[in-house]
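Problem 12. The chain below contains 227 residues. Write out its predicted structure in token notation.
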Amino acid sequence: MTTTSHTATPTNPEQKLSADARADAAEFAERVRSTQATLASEFMNSLINILAKLGLLKEDLDYHLVRASMVIIFLFFGYQKWFAYEAQVLIPYISNGPLIFWMYPVFGIRGASWFLGVSEWVFGALLFAGFWNKQLGILGALGSCFSFIATVTIIPFMPNGWAASAGGFPAMTGNVPFLMKDVVLFAASVYLLKQDVVRVSLSASPMISTPKVDRGEMSNPQMLRTV
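Solution.
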């Protein structure tokens, strides 16, 4: 029994020319894709080499940059708190903050602003000291974490924080967009806290090694000791 092929075979010069053109076009497209992939790879390798030479891979670069950024943020935000204009701006935030609403009954409008200013400068100073003293850095990072927990928790309670014209949540409006930045700042604070705790733990805890013992030795207490 013979099989019949359903593939059309060019029967005239025009059809053969068309098939050759399609084959050439496919080959050309493949070469273009291969060239593009090679150029993209070479570009990325060159870019990575340039970034490496600029010091991006330097040990603890990100750690120091995040710390410096947080110090600057606390310095500038703390400075604002000493002026009347900022005390007025803070009213909707403090009034609707589940963790900081108590400041107005205790300190008043200006006093609450001053209290925040002092706190932010103290946390900033501790973070700055963390460049040299990791224990102080831990205290600063803890204060920073609490600061941004206090501000992020305002978001669900902020009136008119979601645009009704856009269907409400998650279309931010009013004061909510300003508070959203604190989600990232909280993450940066946790990063610094973890880094400082790791460094203090490694410097404070000596390495303890335990000799390997077989199952028979484990039953004998005199054979178990740390060195």
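Discussion. The first helix runs from residue 13 to 53. Students who got a different answer should revisit the alignment rule from Section 12.3.
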